[in-house]
Amino acid sequence: MIEEVKSHHHGKDEEEVEQLLLHFKKASIAEKAEILRQLKKHSAETELTKKERKGLKKFYKTELVKRSVFLKIIAAWIITVPVSGAMAAMIYFVIRGMMPP
Hints:
The protein contains five helices and no strands. It is mainly α.
């Protein structure tokens, strides 16, 4: 998407667009939302077309929910909940076994 945006802007405008895209790429998620908001209001230093703004917004949304991170969280829950339950059961039976009847 970044290359597509760069290809539409030539000359003096090209440097400004490149700086905007570089800033967008390095920005945090909250900063990216603010950049997109400014672009939509046309208050940013650089003007992008609606199609280009939509492309950047799509890139922003994919960063919000990265499937690999989501899958890692689910895997951690699937592994840790049963393991902690089994460890609690073992501790319970060890303590119960040490107590007199």
